[in-house]
Amino acid sequence: MSTFGSSYSRGRTSTEKALQKLKHFCGYQERCHAEVKQKLYSLGLLKKEVEELIARLIEEEYLNEERFAIQFASGKLRIKGWGKVKIRYELKQKGVSEFCIVKALKSLDETEYTSGFKRIADKKWLALQSEKNIFVKKNKWKQFLLQRGFEPAIINTWSVLE
Question: Strand, coil or helix: what is 156?
Answer without folding.
Answer: helix
